Amino acid sequence: MSNYKINNYDVFSGIYDEFRIQGDFFAQYELKFGSKFINSAFSRLPQKLNLLELGCGTGIWSKIIFEIAEENRKSLKCYLVEPSIGMIKKAKSKLENRNATFKNYDASSLLIKKINIKFDCIVSALSIDAIGINIFKLILNYYLKGDGIALFWIFNHERYNSITDKIVKVWTFNNKKIEIPSFKILKKDIIDTFDDLIYNLEIHEIKLPKINDISREIFFCEISKHGM
Ligand SMILES: C[S@@+](CC[C@H](N)C(=O)[O-])C[C@H]1O[C@@H](n2cnc3c(N)ncnc32)[C@H](O)[C@@H]1O
Q1: CA angle at residue 148 from 143 to 150, to 5 degrees?
Q2: Is 153 in the pocket of ligand 1 (CB under 6 A)?
Q3: Other CB atoms closer than 10 Å to residue 31's CB: what's the count?
Q4: What residue spans define the domains of the chain?
Q5: Which pTM was predicted?
Q6: Separation of CA 82 and ligand 1 centre (Å)
Q7: Please, what is the average pLDDT of the chain?
Q8: Positions of the chain with pLDDT lower than 70, given as ranges
Q9: What is the per-residue pLDDT for 14?
Q10: Residue 61 CB less than 6 A away from ligand 1
Q11: How far is CA 34 from CA 122, 152, 177, 222, in A?
């Protein structure tokens, strides 16, 4: 088996959608719950929406987010951040004619070169383990409006047995072992980070069918500021 060690998703970008949608047993559950989750947040947000997506990848969720906005008659403006050039190219091709601005850099760059926009909604689908939960919180502190809503989802730690102190996640695809830098984020880390005086945290735990006797879950998390 040959190995790829990569520090971004470029190696993956060509096969990512196939891998994500057809190759993954969880996609239908994620789609169902993720869509409900976004719908529910949108119903509480204004008609004109400024949304930031962190780690948008090939734009799978960005496209769905635009569709949900349309169904809810929202006027949506998206700011999409993604460090992999291969991934972002795919996202651009899915979002032609949409009101979307693409930024080809790491989420942490938003903290170094600050942009002058505040967001009603900040979304991150399965990317927080790459971004890091502390960076994510710093981004919310600065960019989330007082009455805004942040949504992210992430697998529980079962998925990350491979992550050691070297912080590397190992995936296998087409007989190739692919190693990707990743933080090991546990439910406890999410609670410790967001259950505080500034933020409300809601975690919905969605159980997925057992595969090879391993039970897995996705944590869907909603964060808002207290008093909202
Ligand atoms: C598992 S993919 C998820 C992509 C997409 N959100 C989806 O649902 O298909 C993780 C994504 O996070 C991106 N990523 C990695 N490090 C990042 C960082 N520091 N800031 C923002 N995105 C990052 C990767 O390039 C990759 O596209």
Answers
A1: 75
A2: no
A3: 14
A4: 3-225
A5: 0.93
A6: 6
A7: 88
A8: 1-8, 22-25, 157-159, 173, 211-215, 227-228
A9: 85
A10: yes
A11: 14, 9, 28, 11
